[in-house]
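Re: the 460-residue chain
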Amino acid sequence: MKKEPILSNKGRPDTAGKGTKIFFLSLGCEKNTVNTERMLFLVKEAGYEVVQEDIFADVVVINSCAFIEEAKKESIDAILDVAWLKEHRNLKAIVVTGCLPERYREEVLEELPEVDAVLGTGSYERIVEAVEKALNGRRFSSFEDKNLCPLGGKRELLGSSYSVYMKIGEGCNNRCSYCAIPMIRGNYRSRPMEELIEEAKWLERQGAKELNLIAQDTSVYGADLYGEYSLSKLIRRITEETEIPWIRVLYCYPDKITDGLLEEFRTNDRLLNYLDLPVQHISDRMLSAMNRHGDKKLILDTVKRIREAVPSITLRSTAIVGFPGETEEDFRELCEFVKEVRFERFGAFTYSREEGTAACDFKNQVEEQIKQDRYDRLMALQMEISREKSEEKIGRVLKVLTEGYDEVSEAYFGRSEADAPDIDGKVFFKGRKGQYRRGEFLNVRITEGLDYDLVGKVLK
C-alpha cells in the first residue's frame, strides 16, 4: 500500500506555523541526517521557521539514535539538556523522532515526561502533525509500519551543499546477531532507480561536488526491485545523467561485491577509488556466532579481488572486539589479519550488548576491561599502519576538496578521495584566510604524513 506523504498545507490556514520557531538536532549516522532533512522540508513548507540555536526555539525536534548503548545515552542526555529550556527559556514542546522511540515505543513518553511527542522510523512524514499537537498541549505518538513508509521526498539540506548524502535504500536483511537495525529500521528496501536519478540531479543543482551513496547495505541495492544487485548500474546512470565530479560508495558487504561493481571502479573516473567494506571479524568461529555472511576465506578472497582489479583503491573496514565468546586466540587472529591486509582506513568498536538481539543472550560475555584492552591494542596496531600509509603519500599530488579554515593552525583543511566525510582524516594546507572557498577543488602536494592526517602545499 502506497502512503501519500504530507507535502503541503492543504486543509490548514495560510498562517499555520507562522511565528513558531523550530530547532532540529540530528544524532547518529548520516542516514538519520537524510531523515532530518526530510522533516526540515516538511515543517518549512508548513510555514514554520527553522532556527540555528535551541535557545531561540519554541519547539525542539531531536532525531535520535539508539543503535548501541552509547548512542541511547547520548539521545537521552540530549533530551534532558533541552528540557532545561522549558523552564528557563521559551521552549514549549520537545518532539523525539527516529530510533529511540521506534525501539522503546511508549516508554519514551512514560519515562521522559519532558517529551511531548514521539515518532517512530516509519512516521517521519507526520512531523508537522506531531509539532502542532505538541504545541496544543496534546501528547502524541505515531509508529506507522516502517516497511511501508515512503523512502524519498524533498528535503532541506543540512550543512554543506558541496558534499551530500543520498540514501539508496533503508533497513537491512542481514540479521547479524549483535545488531538492532532490522528491528529499528525494518527489512531492506531499495529506492527506485529513476527516483534516485532525479534526486541526484536535484543535488547537483544545489551545488553537490561529492555524492555519497548510503544505505545499511549499499551492495544489495536493487535485488528486491530488479532481481539482481544493481549498484553498478545505478552508479553508471548517475555518471551519465549528472556531472557531479565525485561519487563515493559506503557500506558494501564482502559477500556482495560483484564483478560489475569492480569494473565500474576500474573504468569510471568519477567513482572514487574508495570502498567501505565492514568485516567485523576474521575468526570463522566469531563470524559464525555473529551470523555474518561469508567466512575468512571469502573475506580474504574478496580483498584480493578488489585490489587486483583496482590497485589504487582505498579500503576502509571495521571490526568488533569483545564479542561473546571471543578468546585471546580469536583476537590474535584478528590482529594478524589486520597486519596482513593493511587496510588504508580501519576502525574498531567494543561489543555493545543490546536487548532484543540474539547475541544479548549468548553465554561467555566478555568483561568490559578485556574489551577495552583489546580495542586499545588493535587500534595501536592500526595507527602504525596508518602512519606508514600516510608517509607513503609524501611527494604525491592529491586532488583535495576544500572544507574550511582552521583559525588555530592558520591553515585550510579538506579531504582527498581517500577520505570519507566525518570518519576519515584531513589534508591540511597553508593559505591566506579567504583565499580558498569551501567546496573548491585544489591540487595539493603532500609534504608530511601524520597518524591519520596529511599536510601539503597547494600547487599554483
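Residues 1-15 have pLDDT under 50 and may be disordered.
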